[in-house]
Structure formats: C-alpha cells, structure tokens
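Hi support team,

I submitted a single chain yesterday and got back a structure, but I'm not sure I'm reading the token output correctly. Could someone confirm the output below corresponds to the sequence I sent? I've pasted both exactly as they appear in my results page.

Thanks,
R.
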Amino acid sequence: MNYEQIEFEQLDVTAQIASFTPDGGVGEWHVMLHVTSRGDVFEQQYARIRQAEEQLMALPGMQGAQMVFKRYFLSDATNQQPIMMKDAQSCTTSYIQQPPLNGSKVAVWIYLASGMEVTGKADELGSTVVSHNGYKHLWTMGMTVPEGSSYAQTRTLLEDYEQMLAGRDATMEANCIRTWFFVRDVDTSYKGLVVARRENFEREGLARGTHYIASTGIGGNPANPKAIIQFGCYAAKGFEREQQTYLRAQTHLNRTDEYGVTFERGTKMQYGDRSHIYISGTASINNKGEVVYEGDVKKQTERMWENVEKLLEEGGATYDDVMQIIVYLRDISDYELVSRLFRERMPDIPTVFTLAPVCRPTWLVEMECIAVTKDGNTSFRNF
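Hi R., thanks for writing in. Yes, this is the structure output for that exact sequence:
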C-alpha cells in the first residue's frame, strides 16, 4: 500500500491518494479530493474540484488509470446537483447531501483501476461495468425513486436493482457484495428501510442461515426533495462462492439480525493476487447490540476503531491496508475533536468527514472503509 498527498496549489485542492499497484497486475486507487473554501460560491468550488480531477489523471504513476465510480459529498444537493449535471461523467456517480465538515461545499471520493476494461454508463440505471480475467464488476450508484414512503421506495429500488441483475444473469443473493442506503430524516425513516429490506432479502434467499450483504445505512439527502432513499451497490460475477467470506468479530459485535436489521459487518473477497475487504458502517456497539459510551464522542470513536480493527483482523488486514475511510458525524461541533483523533492515529489514509446522522440517535460517530491486502489465494484467478 502506498499513500500520497498532493497539493494542487493554484486550485486550493488537496488529493489524498492510496494506491495498490502490484507489478504486472491490476492497479487500484482510492482518492479523496478536498477543496479549501475561499468564501466562494458552489459553482467555483466545483469547477476547482473538476480541474483537480483532470490534473489527478496526469500525475506520474496514474497512467492507464480509469475512473470506475465517484461519490460527491455536497452541502446542498437539491441546488447543487443541477449545476453538476451539466457535466458528462465518465463513470457511475452519486451526489448526496452529506456536507463535508472542513467548511467546503463539496468533496469527492473516486475509485480508479488500470489494466481492466472499464465501460461507461452501461444501462438505464447508470452502472459502470469493469471486466478482467473472467470477472465482471458492476458498480451502480445514485439510484432513487421520487414517490412513496421510505418502505415503498426501498422496496422499489431493490426490485429495480434485482431486475437489472437478472438481465445480467445475476442475483442479489449470489452476486451483491456491498450496498449503501442514504436516508432522508434517518431518525424517522430508517425503520421503513429496515422492514422493506428484510422482506426483500427473505424473498431473495438472504437470511440468517445463509448470509446478508455488507452495507451502510446512514443519514443523507438525495437531490430530489421527494426521494427519501438513495441506493448504491457493488456486485460481481465470475467468482466462486469460496472466494467470499463474511466478517463478524463476535467478540466485539453481535449479529445484526439480533436487533432486527439485515446486513453483514464486513465482507472479504479473495482473489489470486489480493483480497478486498469491505467494512460496513460501524459504530460504538458491543456484542450484545448495545450502544457503548453514550454522549462521549471521543470514547465512541475509540470503540468504533476497536470494532473495525477486529473486523479487519478477521479478514487478515490491519489499518495499514485501508485505502479509504468515510466518517459520519451527527453533530458538526464534534468535527475538530474527531478529525484530530483520526489525524493522530491514521494520518495518511484518504478520509472524508461528513455531517450524516447515524441510524441510532445515540450513536455520535460511524465509519466505513475498504482495505486491500496481498494475501491472495492462488486457487483463485487474479483480480
């Protein structure tokens, strides 16, 4: 793993870059771009971010890299997304109102790969399809529907996605690896999502006796004011069942279905030359499903780190293998403390801090991350 920080000084944009580029193998990059506010309007900040994206692709070592997906974190998605939609995006892209907490109006997380065939928006849902060595990776971001309750919207989104998978001879149960649900007014709307997802998963063969899917369910406003739920998903084809394992760290965490929700704490995908580890949204919780350290964001952060560390450890990884982190905070005033704690412990990992309430009101902070390790299994094809 290699970490690098680049300052695009004329733009006042910082790029945090994590790269995994084995000799002769597929290269992978996760990048967080942060723009420094100059007291300027959104259109100017966004223009600087876009220029930084262009300059990023020209950096030494990035030759051959192609964008697979992007997620923009916005301070006012309803008014900002229409400005952004004037630009053609080369990959699946989501726009979500989760304000960056550094004082800017926009930040972006970008995933890039080299040595693979990357298509653009391949279908009506705006997916990017990445193909290599007998695998197909399907990234689909930013799905919404404009009508109905959180329950109805979740049900429709999952059914639409499953229909799209069926068109590719895939299913949610067999092929889906990672999901994201962003929820408007999460304190009141999350329950509808939970119920609709559980009912859908039962129909699809996802249950305690089989498995669920790594996931984050968090506060976030879609650009359309009528959309309550925004959905994003990563699925893959061509892998063997044995390549996928589920991370539970039951010394520190309990099974999520014990308190009525249906997702895995983490998922490990093992290839011949590497492993990918997807850690779900994780907070300060114990193995009884109880919130730990209510009201103390510092202690909640430390327990959250411990929980994630145990999940990574179960997957054969450490924080040194993490390529990106998203930190979600309920209270904007906690940003200075929590960001300082992260800088002291893991200063090099590309990280974005956003304002996004967690699904339980007493959770003050949550994080998710993706790690890549060299512990491949030669029984399987390379990534």
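A quick pointer for reading it: The chain has seven helices and 18 strands. Let us know if anything else looks off.

Best,
Support desk
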